[in-house]
Recover the amino acids of this structure.
């Protein structure tokens, strides 16, 4: 053998062949010969299998066995040519870089650049409110080409994009009709058509669009992080009641003394003394008692501000809810594809 | 008697004010009715005519927003003090009416009248006068109010005649009110000092015959 066993192990066919199995007996023998590093046998059996009647999967596998065998035999041009056939038959075909030799990978990469295909068309599953979100669409074009992306399935196809592109392309679709309304619920297909001269290729991805009701916001009973403050506060004990009682009583007694007529002798302070004394007792008791709660102006203003904010926020929520009730929640889900592109 | 007529008119005015006001609004107001003990000191002409006495009376008040009306009647039996030249006791029945209006903060304007009748007549001077003054009110604490008032008496009329100059009749007062039983009862204290520079003219020129009374009231009122 020209190649050591280690190299042979690196050239193992990638395992990602899906659940399908090879139906053709000649092709199975070719695959077995390749696995046993009998490349000449693999080559002759592979070519023999191609002359037989094969289904699509077997045909792609036949080209792949040939491509791998040519790569193992250093016939790179032939390997690239075989890989081109594989790619055209299965545009989504990928080789596992961890289990495939670099020689094979480079031949596969060269083959990719020599055919026009649209690969890896992906539509992300997403939920959003109509008009406020977009559906992410991405795909890869293997050659510079005019690429037109459409969504079909509705009353009229919706053209999303038309541009010359190469490599990975990312698009965003707001899922709206030209009128601005959200697309009606139903099954649609995202179709990507690439054209270079006479060559063209198209890939598609079916999606399902469903409508839902947009959630409304609950009204707030409090603003998070902001609590109401007590609107009254108990002031500290003070000498003021006693002092004022003293002052008032003093004024009354002094006034009595000042106003009394000198002709009538010294004024009687018995009456003023009794009432003034009672007043001072009352002032003393009030001074010792727990003061009555007083309105806390700052807290009252703060609470008023808080209530106004809450009212304003709830008015905004109510307004927003009216708008939300008129909106549509869109859900876009990609469906399983029936096959590749063409 | 002039003094009697003045008192009658004033009572009528107060009665009209109270009855003309819608009853449903009066229900929302604060009022008190109660009785009080009164004790006083009365002097007239000179320090020789000096009386002291005590008695009782009734009082009522209504408050509506900034307006307040107070009325009280006190009957006091004055006896000559020891050493006085007076020999006969007399009974003074005094009617006080005050209407006040809150001007700003603790300051209220106050008008009203006083009418004092003496029995037996001429043992002392019956009198009537219109009063006007200012009251300072201040809440000492929850349910405790105090006030200081000062004013003048105008148009004083006396049973024995005589006149008073424009600023010759002054009065000074101190009052307090303490709510009890969650405001159902009210303990009241009221001090009222009057000094009237009365003069008479007996033909030989003006003669000063001043009158001075200090009256204290301690009462208990029911609030409604």
């Amino acid at each position: 053998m020209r190649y050591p066993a280690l190299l042979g192990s690196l050239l193992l066919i990638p395992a990602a062949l899906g659940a399908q199995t090879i139906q053709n007996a000649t092709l199975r023998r070719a695959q077995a010969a390749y696995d046993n590093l009998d490349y000449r046998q693999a080559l002759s059996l592979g070519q023999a299998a191609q002359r037989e009647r094969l289904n699509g999967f077997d045909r792609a596998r036949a080209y792949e066995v040939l491509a791998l065998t040519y790569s193992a035999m250093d016939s790179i041009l032939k390997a690239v040519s075989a890989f081109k056939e594989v790619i055209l038959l299965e545009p989504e075909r990928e080789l596992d870089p961890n289990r495939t030799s670099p020689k094979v990978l480079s031949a596969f990469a060269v083959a990719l650049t020599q055919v026009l295909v649209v690969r890896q068309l992906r539509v992300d599953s997403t939920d959003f409110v109509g008009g406020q979100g977009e559906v992410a669409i991405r795909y890869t074009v293997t050659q510079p080409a005019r690429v037109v992306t459409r969504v079909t399935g509705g009353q009229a196809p919706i053209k999303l994009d038309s541009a010359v592109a190469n490599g990975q392309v990312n698009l965003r679709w707001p899922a709206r009709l030209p009128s601005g309304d959200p697309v009606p619920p139903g099954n649609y297909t995202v179709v990507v058509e690439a054209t270079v001269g006479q060559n063209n290729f198209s890939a598609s991805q079916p999606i399902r669009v469903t409508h839902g009701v947009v959630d409304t916001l609950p009204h707030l009973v409090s603003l998070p992080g902001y609590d109401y403050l007590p609107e009254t506060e108990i002031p500290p004990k003070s000498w003021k009641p006693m002092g004022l009682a003293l002052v008032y009583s003093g004024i009354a007694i002094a006034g009595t003394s000042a106003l009394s007529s000198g002709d009538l002798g010294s004024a009687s302070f018995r009456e003023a003394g009794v009432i003034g004394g009672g007043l001072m007792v009352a002032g003393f008791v009030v001074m010792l008692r727990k003061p009555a709660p007083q309105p806390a102006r700052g807290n009252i203003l703060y609470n008023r501000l808080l209530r106004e904010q809450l009212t304003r926020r709830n008015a905004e929520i109510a307004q927003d809810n009216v708008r939300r009730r008129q909106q549509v929640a869109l859900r876009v889900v990609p469906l399983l594809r029936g096959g590749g592109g063409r | 008697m002039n003094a009697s007529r003045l008192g009658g008119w004033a009572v009528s005015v107060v009665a009209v004010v109270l009855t003309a006001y819608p009853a449903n609004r009066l229900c929302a107001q604060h009022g008190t009715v109660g009785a009080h003990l009164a004790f006083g000191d009365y002097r007239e002409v000179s320090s020789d005519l000096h009386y002291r006495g005590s008695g009782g009376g009734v009082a009522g008040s209504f408050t509506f927003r900034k307006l307040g009306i107070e009325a009280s009647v006190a009957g006091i039996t004055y006896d000559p003090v020891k050493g006085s030249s007076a020999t006969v006791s007399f009974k003074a029945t005094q009617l006080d009416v005050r209407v006040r209006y809150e001007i700003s903060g603790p300051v209220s304007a106050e008008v009203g009248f006083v009418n004092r009748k003496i029995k037996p007549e001429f043992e002392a001077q019956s009198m009537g006068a219109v009063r006007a003054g200012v009251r300072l009110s201040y809440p000492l604490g929850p349910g405790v109010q105090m006030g200081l008032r000062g004013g003048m008496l105008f148009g004083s009329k006396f049973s024995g005649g005589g006149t008073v100059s424009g600023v010759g009749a002054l009065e000074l007062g101190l009052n307090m009110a303490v709510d009890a039983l969650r405001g159902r009862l009210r303990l009241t204290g009221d001090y009222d000092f009057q000094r009237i520079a009365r003069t008479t003219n007996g033909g030989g020129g003006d003669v000063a015959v001043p009158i001075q009374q200090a009256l204290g009231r301690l009462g208990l009122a029911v609030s409604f």
Chain B touches chain A through 38 residues (CB under 8 Å). Chain B has one domain: 3-21+30-223.
